[in-house]
């Protein structure tokens, strides 16, 4: 419990300092305004939406061993908490935020629009693109007041599926082809963030992509042993290098706050 509390405190402090501009951090949740948390992206942030789009009546993420550390396999792709759960706890949001697709969910403190297998480009099966997630938020926007939305936190983590799929279907892509694809992905991401901003969102946390070539499933698929698959790492690096300037451009607006944790 101590380790978990420490992590929550650190993550929460970073968000308060960079997003909510509160200089005094004493304990988890203290000084954080009572606002909502909205998340968009893929399985890293999926609070259970995938289960509502899956053709499988008993998708694996709703069964043990998922959620085993909390004895609650509730559709999250984790043995317990996902990153937004820690942030929600710091923001004093009871039980975290619900999946937006869950009928009758209490959306008063926000919702998760993220869904596993989501991508920025393309048409993912039994999932949604980021643009579709944002439009789902737009269809529900009357649930919250404009002032509440402006004060709330929007977290986005997406892009993994785009680069996994590109690498799989273009194993011999040239450097120029890779650069062109990264540009397409990041330009669309910029557009989707802009759409959220136009809907009233002003506080964003958009983490950098992890070294995708070091994911266990990638190392297994490409049989790299203990080594990472560098072509995917290169794509993630190029993606991250483009994200900073995009967020800095939006952050020039005095009403906007953007954070991009690495």
Word description of this protein:
The chain is α/β, with parallel strands linked by helices and 262 residues long. The protein has helices at residues 2-20, 50-53, 83-90, 130-139, 146-151, 160-169, 175-198, 216-221, 230-251; strands at 37-41, 110-112, 153-157, 203-205, 257-259. It has a five-stranded parallel sheet, with helices on both faces. The protein is globular and about 50 Å long. Residues 1-13 and 20-29 have low confidence and may be disordered.
In short:
This protein has 9 helices and 5 strands. The chain is α/β, with parallel strands linked by helices and 262 residues long. The longest helix has 24 residues, at 175-198.
Write the layout of secondary structure elements.
Blueprint: H1 2-20, E1 37-41, H2 50-53, H3 83-90, E2 110-112, H4 130-139, H5 146-151, E3 153-157, H6 160-169, H7 175-198, E4 203-205, H8 216-221, H9 230-251, E5 257-259
Parallel strand pairs: 1-2, 1-3, 3-4, 4-5
Helix pairs in contact: 1-3, 4-7, 6-9, 7-9
SSE succession: HEHHEHHEHHEHHE
Integer tally of domains = 1
| Shape estimate | globular
User: DSSP helix count?
Assistant: 9
Question: Average pLDDT value?
Answer: 83
The major pleated sheet works out as:
5 strands, parallel
Given helix and strand content, the structural type is alpha/beta
CATH class: Alpha Beta
Percent helix among the residues?
A: 40-55%
Family: Belongs to the 'GDSL' lipolytic enzyme family.
Keywords: Hydrolase, Lipid degradation, Lipid metabolism, Signal
Protein name: GDSL esterase/lipase
Organism: Brassica oleracea
């Amino acid at each position: 419990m101590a380790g978990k509390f420490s992590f929550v405190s650190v993550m929460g402090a970073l968000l308060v300092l960079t997003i909510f501009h509160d200089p005094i951090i004493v304990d988890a949740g203290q000084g954080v305004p009572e606002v909502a948390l909205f998340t968009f992206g893929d399985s890293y942030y999926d609070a259970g939406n995938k289960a509502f789009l899956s053709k499988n009546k008993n998708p694996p993420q709703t069964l043990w061993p998922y959620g085993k550390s909390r004895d609650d396999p509730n559709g999250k792709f984790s043995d317990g908490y996902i990153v937004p759960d820690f942030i929600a706890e710091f923001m004093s949001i009871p039980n975290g935020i619900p999946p937006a697709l869950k009928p009758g969910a209490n959306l008063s403190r926000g919702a998760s629009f993220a869904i596993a297998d989501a991508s920025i480009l393309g048409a993912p099966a039994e999932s949604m693109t980021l643009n579709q997630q944002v439009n789902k938020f737009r269809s529900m926007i009357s649930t919250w007041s404009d002032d509440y939305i402006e004060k709330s936190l929007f977290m986005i983590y997406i892009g993994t599926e785009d680069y996994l799929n590109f690498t799989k279907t273009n194993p011999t892509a040239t450097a120029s082809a890779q650069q062109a694809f990264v540009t397409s992905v990041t330009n669309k991401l910029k557009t989707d963030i802009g759409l959220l901003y136009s809907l009233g969102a002003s506080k964003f946390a958009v983490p950098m992509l992890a070294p995708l070539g070091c994911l266990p499933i990638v190392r297994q698929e490409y049989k790299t042993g203990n080594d990472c698959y560098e072509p995917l790492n290169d794509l993630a690096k190029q993606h991250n290098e483009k994200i900073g300037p995009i967020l800095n451009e939006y952050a020039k607006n005095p009403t906007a706050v953007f954070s991009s944790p690495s």
